[in-house]
Amino acid sequence: MSANRVRLFVICMLGAFVIAGFLAPYGLLIGPIAAALDAEIGVVGSLFSFFTGSIFVGYIVAFYVFDYVNVKTIVLGGYGAVSLAVVLVILTPGLATLSIALTIIGFCCSLVVCGSVTLISQTWQGKQRQSALVAQDAAFNGGGIFFTAITVYMLGKNVSWQIGYVPAAVFALIAIALAIFTRLRIRKQTDDDVGETTDWNAGIILVGVLVMLFMTAKLTFIVWAPQYLEQEFGASPHQAGILMSNVFQAAFLGSLIGTYIVSKVPIHYFLAVMILTGAVATFVMLTTEDLHVVIATGYLFGLSVSATFNSYMALGLSFVASPNHRHVAYMLLAGAVGSAVGPFISGQAVLVTETTRTPINFAFTLMALVFVCVIILCNENVRVKLQSISRSYS
Predict the structure, then answer these.
(1) More exposed terminus of the chain, fewer Cβ within 10 Å: N or C?
(2) Residue 192, C-beta contacts closer than 8 angstroms, at least 6 positions apart
(3) How confident is the model over 38-82, as pLDDT tens digits?
(4) Which CATH number is 195-394's, of 1.20.1250.20, 3.90.1150.10, 2.40.440.10, 3.40.640.10?
(5) How far is the CA of 148 from the CAs of 106, 165, 220, 237, 379, in angstroms?
């Protein structure tokens, strides 16, 4: 492998690693932010929708921006803006500046991630491409472990909450340094792609809805589980951090092991088991009175979300004979919608009910609903019927 490809690979891995650095610690930072800014935790929690919502917008913009702007410019400019957003929060802390910063960070990181996935797809083929994409999943989950641990350490040292995003910004700057000396290029769309017909049916549409519900439950858990432990069990920030570390450790291992299992087991059965595992984890968290048991459930929940999104992708695309980039984009956008609405809805629910138990109940209910739907999809006759309800669009 050439030196340029090595740097390109590292940049692509950093794309997933850096976005994890802004996503994973937020649940741990809600309490300190609320205390420092004299705000309700429900308000602070719902601000995370600025991050996830801007990721959604970024996915839409990514459909077109790479036809006009070089991917190297996106990496340099995007991570430059991300670093400046972190500086903005450090210099002028407040709910308004935090909202602006989260919006900038989410939007720019989503463009870089889309660009990195495209670079992987165009640079490597076959098993090498698959390995690179799996490695990117592992980089995201590994980032969750690393940045959660760093955040727990800093909170234990009573460091100001604004510093919580500095480590992720440092890795963004490293990506900038690498990109300066790396040849990055994405092939543009050709005339042959214009007018391509896309087949849609009830099956892939339904799976997209399930992705949205699943991501809503996943982000709700990630944002509110630490606060739930502190409010319901009197846990310390360190103990809440252990829970999140367990989640990302299990997700990291699961993202590697799951790829092999999916090659041996029908995708709908694998997905059903994973969703059931997540539902059991949230149910145990709601019913047990033992803090150590709750912390241990982080392993179960992390395992359930490790390779699940890619499994949804495979299940949805299995409903269409010739899947193309529009089908993939639909699945990504469905997940982004769930990621955006989850923190907002759960944050509003906390404001109304004044308890962090509500969002965990919400996550469990969604997990249970998705599980029932996936079980129904395990029936071959149901899948055939859904596939027959179709239309084609140019």
Answers:
(1) C
(2) none
(3) 988 888 888 888 998 898 888 888 777 877 888 899 999 999 999
(4) 1.20.1250.20
(5) 18, 11, 17, 11, 40
